[in-house]
Amino acid sequence: MERTVDPAEVGFDPARLTRIDQHFARYVDEGLLAGWQIVVTRRGQVAHASTYGNRDREAGLPVEADTLWRIYSMTKPITSVAAMMLWEEGAFELTDEVSRWIPAFADVRVYDKGSAQRPFTVPTTEPIRIWHLLTHTAGLTYGFMYTHVADALYRAAGYEWSTPPGVDLAQACERWASLPLLFQPGSRWGYSVATDVLGRLVEVVSGQSLDEFVADRILSPLKMSDTRWWVDAADADRLAALYLPDPATGRAVREDRLSAGARRRPTIFSGGGGLISTAADYHRFTQMLLRGGELDGARVLGSRTVRLMTANHLPGGLDLGQLSTGGFAESTFDGVGFGLGFGIVLDPVPGRTHASRGEYFWGGAASTAFWVDPEEELTAMLFTQLLPSSTHPIRPQLRQLVYSALVD
């Protein structure tokens, strides 16, 4: 991507914007990141676009405008949009029970006490509903959390960072439904496989596989031609390598075991974390949201639906600091609510952040991130490939640098 406007014309101090590149270059120069790509827009124009370092450090391949990035949980907003497109067509109500389409969820139970070897469970007092999936209030979890007995049960079943070999989305949902919930549906917030279950709901309701629905109804209309579920041989050298921090030095060390899955067709299309994309493609997705569901004549959602999705849906209007079960998440908690697929800034003061009220955002496990600020008509995206995303405070630092450069 390239800059399309003089930053000063859209309220940025150009000299202050250069701080972004200077700051993040140090992460690469010190070996903490292999490389990165950053894009900042205002009023639909690209005010800042930069790359630094390598997409594949070992091969000496630089980050380029068309580098392919594993966006992991930045897939979640796309899957949430897919579900809400079906909701707009009257296919279901947000209060409908999930078991109407995925019967295995009719008999879920909730962890009460005991160990992973001998857990005791109780019946649900409230069925899992579709809005619970969209808001991560269903009581499901992730195996990689390492904070609760329920997480250990997911790992024991083969669900940590991936799924057992040969398991498809329908089979995974059957298995998750058989495992204890972390809490009663609708009572807490816990980051989870809920968006993967939502992807299965899209399949059942639409009659299409998730990859087909997303391609036909979102990627194609928005001209997101580089977004896909795996990378074939023709584009393999565009894919950024994946890295982990060395426990002793903190330096980024190449990780090939987890990254290999991106080079072959998956058996499960993960609505919660399966997509690979480019900065240019995800920019089009964020611009569609900023414009109220439409981009270049292609309307994906109604403007009121986007407004509904980007409002806080947590019970009682509370924030994540009050309702979260803790553990890994792509968000800070204080002053942040959750909508239908996005974190929502309710009040920037408790989180000590520059963010505007109503800003919505999310990120991916390999340290990618984006946000959309309707008040300032601003979007920002960060792409790199370091697992886990909590390794360095690069997301809040990007926010500090972007908003500090806004001077109108």
TrEMBL record:
In what residue span(s) does the Beta-lactamase-related domain sit? 20-401
Q: Which UniProt keywords apply?
A: Hydrolase
Q: Which Pfam families match?
A: Beta-lactamase
Is the keyword Hydrolase assigned to this protein? yes
In the UniProt record, does the keyword Hydrolase occur? yes
PANTHER family per UniProt: BETA-LACTAMASE FAMILY PROTEIN (AFU_ORTHOLOGUE AFUA_5G07500), BETA-LACTAMASE-RELATED
Quote the protein name from its UniProt record.
Serine hydrolase
**Species name:** Planosporangium flavigriseum
